[in-house]
Amino acid sequence: MAEFNEDLHPLADLDQVIHSQARLMVLTYLYVVDQADYTFLQNLTGLTWGNLATHINKLEEAGYVDVEKKFVGKKPHSMLKMTKAGREAFKAYKQQMQSVLNNLPD
Amino acid sequence: MDNKLNIKQAERKTLALSFADGLWDILFGGMLVLIGLSDTFQKAGWPVWMSYMPWLVYTVIGIAVFTLLKQRLVTPRSGMVKISLVRSKQRLTIFIVAIALQLITLVVFLLGSSGSLKSALSDTPVWLVDALFGLGVLVFFGVMAYATASNRFFLYGLFMGLALPLGVILREQGQAVTTHPQIAAGILIALIGGVVFVKFLQKYPLPAGEAQDGRI
């Protein structure tokens, strides 16, 4: 019977909201700033508008991102901010992934 | 899509995008040219205070125009971001210290040029004052490059680093105007800023924007 690597268990607990290439990118950029708008994130991630909106919605539903809607002049403008829960979840995800990768066999 | 998710790299990219428009370069390049021209104006008989007036007027108008262009042309394209002061504390501290040192150096340089510090610095060789100013400029641009994550500031440091000793050499040779290298450096920096600005407008077109009902 193959030896079971208990250190790989964290894979099963990975936050599936964060464990998506696009959402991970969005959260990485939101992690290093206070706030950013859709345009800024779109420029940095290269995601299409629709794609970005879909992922932001998922993050907002999970409580990881706050979307503050306001008007600049007559145009609607949203600023995105990572919530405290989002920051904690992101840090936990980062630690889990680092632990998993560090314990992978050669 | 960019696959590099290194947090430090994300931070650098965020800062770099904030300074990707080249407007600072155009503003600063123009200021350098006019500070350099003040020497020409003084040689033409202008009083010292009047020789710096074109620079002062340009700076005031330049900052107003800069702010307007940032609001109307740049931010709608690059997007809006509030940089984290907590995360950027180290960069911010270094940046503020560098700005303060540079302002002090500039004041000393201007006072020295106008002769106000003549008695205080009478025993100090002129080349030493210039060398210290040049070192301050190099440090300042190095810090700007680090703080803004924009490597072209290293190039500007090099331009200024070459311009100042060239000015000293011209002075030693007895040339009437010794700020031509500085003026040339200012023109180069402003031109590069102009190119960066045009490329920025091409690379970041105006997005469609959010729909009136808040959807994008």
Task: Give an overview of the whole structure.
The complex is a heterodimer of chains A (106) and B (216). Chain A has helices at 21-31, 38-45, 49-61, 84-102, and strands at 33-37, 65-72, 75-82. With 106 residues, chain A is of the alpha+beta class. In chain A, a hairpin with a 2-residue loop joins strand 2 and strand 3. Chain A is elongated and about 55 Å long. By secondary structure, chain B is mainly α. Chain B has helices spanning 7-18, 23-43, 48-51, 53-78, 89-114, 126-148, 152-172, 180-203; one strand at residues 81-83. In chain B, helix 2 (23-43) runs antiparallel to helix 8 (180-203) and helix 7 packs antiparallel against helix 8. The two termini of chain B are 19 Å apart. At the A-B interface, helix 1, strand 1, helix 2, helix 3 and strand 3 of A face helix 1, helix 4 and strand 1 of B. Strand 1 (33-37) of chain A pairs antiparallel with strand 1 of chain B.
A few lines on this structure:
Chain A has four helices and three strands. Chain A has 106 residues and is an alpha+beta fold. Chain B has helices spanning 7-18, 23-43, 48-51, 53-78, 89-114, 126-148, 152-172, 180-203, and one strand at 81-83.
Key attributes of the depicted protein:
heterodimer, A: alpha+beta, three-stranded antiparallel sheet, 3 strands, 20% strand, B: 216 residues, mainly alpha, 73% helix
Secondary structure elements and pairings:
The complex is a heterodimer of chains A (about 110) and B (about 220).
Chain A: H1 21-31, E1 33-37, H2 38-45, H3 49-61, E2 65-72, E3 75-82, H4 84-102
Antiparallel strand pairs in A: 1-3, 2-3
Chain B: H1 7-18, H2 23-43, H3 48-51, H4 53-78, E1 81-83, H5 89-114, H6 126-148, H7 152-172, H8 180-203
Helix pairs in contact in B: 2-4, 2-8, 5-6, 6-7, 7-8
